[in-house]
Amino acid sequence: MPVGKRIYLKRHLPDPKVIEGFKHIPASNTADCMERNCAMHPRVKLMSKPDSEMVGPAFTIHTRAGDNLAIYAALRYCHPGDVLVIDDEGDNTRSLIGEVMMSYLRDQKKIAGIVIDGPIRDIDNLQNWKLPIYARSTTPGGPYKDGPGEVNIPISCGNVSVNPGDVILGDADGVICIPRKDAADVLPKAQAFHKKDEEKQIAFSKGDVDLSWVDKSLKDKGFDIIDDIYRP
Fold first, then answer.
1. Alpha carbon 19 to its chain's center
2. Closest residue by Cα to residue 112 from 97, 95, 136, 134
3. Distance between CA 192 and CA 33 in Å, rounded?
4. 103-146 residue pLDDT tens
5. Helical H runs in 161-211?
6. Number of neighbours of residue 227 by Cβ within 10 angstroms
7. Of 91, 103, 202, 219, whose CB count within 10 A is highest?
């Protein structure tokens, strides 16, 4: 879809209590409660060193490839606690943002994090920041500032559809998107799954686990178990 020139100032937002509830739940546990189809592509990697998970409502940006004028618009219009999610149309040749703009977003706008399906720069300093920063890569090459670009429209980031106001959750494993309309239903499932997963980890660590189901599943699915070495 061609990039337009629209900036929407308002979004439907999730309940702040729901957003708060996702804190301290691993992205993987939440993803497992969502049919495992909400995770962004692994090319979108954590670039900084936050001391907690990233969670907040999506403030979406669709830029022309290699252009950051719409991101400058976000500097004006985003809110504290937002997660900026940026669709760079698959470009991987020009950085969209660096330390100068990031400083404003961190110190003045107090965003919860930023997710870019494209490059950043100034990684020598940004890699040590507590602000969660996810990006595809780094390059010293700078962006255009001509537009077009759009703010707070549906976008694609990391091969996942993201709508304004969706809950974005990220940790060291990567980033997932929880649709705003589903977030309140997903939260208790994720909380229960996380509790059960912690109990499972302790049991596995102690060897107190029954794996007989694996043998049954392999048999049912037609695997051959061969008590011999492989011979070409």
1. 14
2. 134
3. 10
4. 999 999 999 999 999 999 999 999 999 999 999 999 999 999 99
5. 180-206
6. 4
7. 91
